[in-house]
Structures are given as structure tokens and as C-alpha cells.
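hey so i finally got around to running the thing on that chain from the lab meeting. sorry it took forever, my laptop kept dying and i had to restart like 3 times. anyway pasting the input first so we r on the same page abt which one it is
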Amino acid sequence: MRVPRLKPIIDIAIPSDFIAESPDDREAVRKIGYLGRGAAIFQVSKIIIYRHKLAGERDRAEFIMKNLQYLATPPYLRKDLFKLDRDLKYAGLLPPLKTPNHAPEGKPQRGEYREGVVVRWDGYFSIIKIGNGVYAKVPRPMPPGARVVVQVDAPTTRDDTYRAHAIPRDRLNIYWGFETEVMDLNSLFSAYDYVILTGREGMSIKDAMDYVRNAMSRDRVLVVFGSPYHGVDEILKAEGMEEVLRKYPFINFIPGQGVETVRTEEAVIAVLSILNLVRYLRGSLP
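ok and heres what got predicted. didnt touch it at all, straight out
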């Protein structure tokens, strides 16, 4: 499956306490799965889990990150890349993602991209696992355990091995799933062309469409979400970052909501669906 990568590239930032209302880790993992599915549906490139002062003991950044990374990893690589970990006890509850990097089983075709992990260096080639019982040979040394994207060039004399070359993930012109990282809030905003803050206390989306259209004309956009207990505005004020509220639009994407609170994973889908529509109207979608 080759899905063209859409512009702008959208990253999302969620708070480290977004699963704080979950009664147990089973429900927390289900929430993380819904979040990951929503992000992948709308081609999110990166999910950032940001730490903030108001999270306190509810901070579960590492737990969230590990489960999102597990979800985003092709199933045939999970046993190679993840050791036994208490934080992944309920990872089996995560839904199938089936993004383009989750290749179907079977032999790859010439020109196909595959995600893999370096198994060894044989003196001439790096041997990379790119499927269950399927390997690629790349003529350059790479450290064992490294995760890499390859493009298949041709079969070899072995039925299970193919010649291939490595390709940087950021040079792919197709959507390749999302990456995940943890970051402190005060380091979050410096790398982005444009930022959208979301929350119930923001201006109505009806009055903010010019801001949204402007955002969709940029190369890369960050969309920031609040937590179950604190909105983005409260979180920023607690960090002494009121200037961020003045600099970027703070938008309510769900005016007239019929429930008392909108969960973060629900807000992600609601917001990204609107941004995706604007992409479409701008001609970024086929």
C-alpha cells in the first residue's frame, strides 16, 4: 500500500497525563490505541508526549510512549525490538494499525519499501530482517539492532533474501506511520512553522478558519491538546508560558459539544478531521 504523504506535515502533542482518568492499565492501553489509530488515519507524522508541572504524579509519559512505539512498529519486528516489559503487559489490546510500513506477509516486490532491523554485518553486507523469514542485503555497514527503511532492488540466489538499499525515512514521499517521543513543554514549540492550540476555552472554529487555512499552507504544523484535568491554557499559564497563548491561535474545534468533557483521543479525531477537510479544499488530497 502506497499512500502519498500529505502536506502540511502534522505532528500532535498530548500531555503526559492524558490517560489519568483510566481506571486501570487495560483501559489506559485501549485509550492509547484509539489515539494511535486516530493519528494514523489522518497521517500524523509524530506524536509528542509533553511533560508539564500540573501532571504531577499522574505523569505516565514513558508508559504512553512505549505502547505507541509498539503500536507503530511492524508486527514482524516487535519481538526483535521489544523485550519483556511491565509497561507492555497489555500491548495485545492495541488495535491493528496497518499503516504502509506494516507490510503484508510474503515476498516483497521490486521497488517495494520495507521497514527492518539490522541483524548482522557479514563483512560485505548488512543483513536486515524485513519480514518473517525475509531478509535484505544492503552493501554498507550498519550497527546490529538499528531500525532502517529499505527499498528492494532484486532477489538473490536465496529465496528468502533480497538486494536492497537504505533510504532515509524523511525522504519517502509516502506516509510511513508515526514516530513518538517525550519532551518537556518548554522545548516543544521551537521546531515548528506554525502551532495550533486546542481547547474548549478557545475561539470558535467558525471564527478561526483564516488561522486554520494559514496553518494548512505551511510545511509543518504542531497541534497541541490538553489533559483530562487541565486545558492547554491552564497548562501553559502554570509553566509561565503565557506568550505562547498570545503568539498562536487557541481554537475550540468542537463548539456546542453535547458532553461535559471531550476526551483527548476523541478531540484528536475531531480536530484532525477538520484539518483534513481543509487540506482537501486546498487541493492537497486526490
